Description:
- With 471 residues, the chain is of the alpha/beta class.
- The chain has two domains: 2-306, NAD(P)-binding Rossmann-like Domain (Rossmann fold); 313-470, Alpha-D-Glucose-1,6-Bisphosphate, Chain A, domain 4 (2-Layer Sandwich).
- It has 13 helices and 19 strands.
- Strands 3-2-1-4-5-6-11 form a seven-stranded parallel β-sheet, with helices on both faces. Strands 14-19-18-17-16-15 form a six-stranded antiparallel β-sheet, with helices on one face.
- Strand 18 (421-430) and strand 19 (433-442) form a beta hairpin.
Amino acid sequence: MKILITGAxxxxxxxxxxxxxxxxxxxxxxxxxxxxxxxxxxxxxxxQVIELDFLNPDSLNAIPYDIDIAYYLLHSMDSSPNYxxxxxxxxxxxxxxxxxxxxxxxxxxxxxxNDKQLSKHLGSRLAVENEIAKGxxxxxxxxxxxxxGSGSASFEIIRDLVEKLxxxxxxxxxxxxxxPIAISNxxxxxxxxxxxxxxxxxNFDIGGPDILxxxxxxxxxxxERGLIRKIITVPIMTPRLSSxxxxxxxSTSYRLAKALVDSMKIEVICRPSGINEILNLNPLxxxxxxxxxxxxxxxxxxxxxxxxxxxxxxxNIYISDFLNVPTFxxxxxxxxAEISNSENTRERIWQLxxxxxxxxxxxxxxxxxxxxxxxxxxxxxxGRTNQNTLEAGDALDFWRVLYSNKEEGRLLxxxxxxLPGEAWLEFRIKENQLYQxxxxxxxxxxxxxxxxxxxxxxxxxxxxxxxxxxx
Length: 471
C-alpha cells in the first residue's frame, strides 16, 4: 500500500515509520524541513520524502494522488500561544488536499475528550477531529490519554518528578483519574486499524487496563524503581503556579506544562467501545509499561523523544536557514588543537552533553543552564535522546543539532537558550586537527555587551574543552 505519514519527525511518527517500513509498503513522509529527517539507511529505499508546510495550501500539491491511507499525527500545542487556530487551519488544509486524492482512509491520533468541560488543549484536538472527519474518505480517530514510553512527554515528567523529589507538595489535581497506555500498544492500534472496516467513520478511546490517579501513577513508577516517595496534595496551587512547578522541576517547556496542567484537571477515562476485541489487542498494564520503558532507557534504545521536536526549543526554525554560519558582524572564538587520537576525539565530541556533561568546567555549563531556565529558557533540561548518536534536529541540552556527520568529522550546534542574538558552536576535524569555533551574531548594543561580559568565561570553558577533546 501507499501510505502518507504526517508528523514523520515527531514522537509517534518516527516509531510508526520504523514499523511500517518493515512491511511491504511504499511510504510518503511529510516533513517541514528535510534537513532534520534522518531515517535509517536500512529503510531509506521504502521512503519518499515530501517537504511541505500544512499552513501553506499550495505546498500540499506535492502529496501524490494515488495514496491509499494517510496518518494525521500533527499538533502545535507547544509551538505557539495561539496553537488552536494553527491546528484548525492545518487540519482544514490537510482535509481539503487528501479529499482530492484516492485515499480511502485517514487515521488520526487525538486525546480523550469525554468531559463536558474540556481544556484548551483537548478542545483543540476535538476541533481538529471534527474538521478532518468532514473529508471524502473513511475517517478513524483514536483518542489516548497519557502515553507511557521512553521519550514521551508524559513519561519524562513522571520520571523527573519521582527521581528528583523524595517528598512532593503537589496540587490537588494529582487525585484526578486517568487511563495510561503503553506506546507499543498505541503503535499496534494505529497499524491494525489500516483498512479495518470495523473502524471506519468511528472514534475510539484507547487505554491500558488500569484506571489510576496521577498520584498513583507517580507512586507506581517509584515502586518499579525501588524508591520511597511521599506525596502531599494541597488545595492552594493555582494552575499558573502548578505550571511553573512542572517547568522548573521537570524537563518540559512552560507552554507544554501549562497545557498539561489544564488537561490534568479533567478525568480522561476510556469509554467502552470494544476496540480491543476489534483489533485483537491485549494492552499492557501500567506496571508492565513502566518496566519495559525503564529497560529501553537503560539499554539506550530510545527511538524518538518529544524533546527533539523543534517546538521544544526557543525558536521554531528551518535548520537549513542556519547551516551556513555567518561571519559579517559576528564575534567568534576559534581554537585549533592537534589531535593525538582521532577516533577518541570523535567519540568524545559525539558524546558531549546530557548525562556525561561537557568534559570541562561542567559547573559553569550548569550555572549557565540554570540562569537560562530562570529567565524562561530551555536550560540543560532536555539532555540528549541517545547517548551515542546525534542527528540533525536533535535537542542537545540548550543546543539544537544542525549538522552531524561523524565520518566527515563535523558537528554544528545552534543555541536555543535566551540570548540577545544568535550563537553557533562548531567542531570540525581536518588533517589531524580539531577546529572548535563559537560564533555569536549580536542583536543591538545589548548583544555586544553580552559577548564581552561572558568572554572571560568563554576563555576558560572553550580552552579547557578543546584540550579535553584532543588529549
